[in-house]
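Appendix B. Chain record.
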Amino acid sequence: MIQTESPYFQYAVATESPGPFNITGELYYNYFNNEPVFPDDTGTCIGNNLSCNFAWAVMVQGVTNLTVAGAGLYSWFDAYDQKTCVDAQNCQQRLINDQGDNSGFYLWNLVTIGSVEMISDTANDNANTVFAANNTQLDSHPFWSALAAYADDSAPEDVGCTDDEDTSAVCQISTYCDWTLTFDTLDAISAAATAGTINEVCVSWYTLQTLSYTIDGSITNYTTVNTGYDQVFKYYVEYVKNMVPYGLGAFMADASPSSPNGGAGQKYFECTYTGKTTYTQPCPISVSNVAHLVLT
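Structure tokens predicted for this chain:
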């Protein structure tokens, strides 16, 4: 499972990748292996120069039998502003960089927000790039897009079994996967694959099955814990109501020697002191000014 949110400060030349991470003229990708290179190769991006130099959410290259059961990749802001880019699906150009050379890369249940492209096929000049606008599932804010499945090099190997008389070893396998097997945990699947008791091509199916069982168990446990909650919620409501006067009092507190600026809400008001003289200023009126006004 993957969930990411792109940096909120993006969308200015000073903050385009890798701008914030410049080390005395050298860039971080000189320090860490497999860091992406910026400015990006213009041949792999079909957006403008600025939106192409935004942070990647996921980079995939040369993976073998990798399954992502679900992913939520979100780009909510441009320079801390989301008034237009989220609904326009263009806070940034790309999120997932599929660089190819994969053998069995499976991505299920992908949801993206704020990106032009859901998956960018940079290995093949965007021949298989998936665009958010073509997969939009909500016609109101935040206009999220969903993709049920994406597979790179997922076609099964042609074993070349032409007829029932073929006696080669691979053609004697009645089925690759034992569909009756179940696993309680992902660790159990990993152990079975390591021990060779299950075929590695079956791991993805067993993983989805186990994740489904896990989700069902979590929902059952949540329902159990939630039993009787409505009956005790009133105590929480009462607690919140009791806290309101204290919160308002602290927010609008007068200036004091220990808190010369008063409560945080004072700055939104103009204060007038009426005594021997009348005095008006932005709130709060300081303790020293009140003493001066009283004396005069």
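Further analysis of this model is presented in Appendix C.
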